[in-house]
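User: Here's a structure from my thesis project, written as structure tokens. My advisor, Dr. K., wants to see whether a designed sequence matches the one we expressed. Can you design one independently, without my sequence as a hint?
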């Protein structure tokens, strides 16, 4: 198996074993993982809220920020917001390969 498959399986196993995780949490993590693999980074990215919301099929900004806040509190991601319009926020997944 390649590294991408292992990372995806690990992410799925970790998140699905936690009863606090909703489909929206899972969708955000998968979007982060997908964008990270596109950039050659398996766990972290710098991107805009709009791009994550589009990939995760989340339409509400409130839902997005609630899920990001909860994933951070649960210890699954590190989130460093960017208030610069041209720079994206930093999001790192905290999963081991």
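Assistant: Designed independently from the structure alone:
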């Amino acid at each position: 198996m390649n590294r991408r498959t292992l990372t995806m399986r690990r992410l799925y196993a970790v998140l699905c074993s936690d009863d606090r995780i909703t489909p929206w949490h899972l969708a955000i993590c998968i979007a982060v993982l997908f964008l990270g693999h596109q950039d050659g980074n398996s766990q972290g990215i710098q991107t805009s809220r709009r791009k994550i919301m589009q990939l995760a099929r989340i339409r509400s900004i409130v839902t997005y920020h609630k899920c990001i806040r909860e994933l951070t509190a649960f210890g699954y991601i590190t989130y460093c917001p960017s208030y610069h319009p041209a720079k994206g926020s930093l999001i790192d997944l905290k999963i081991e390969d």
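When you compare it with your expressed construct, this may help: Residues 3-93 form a domain with the Arc Repressor Mutant, subunit A fold (CATH 1.10.10).
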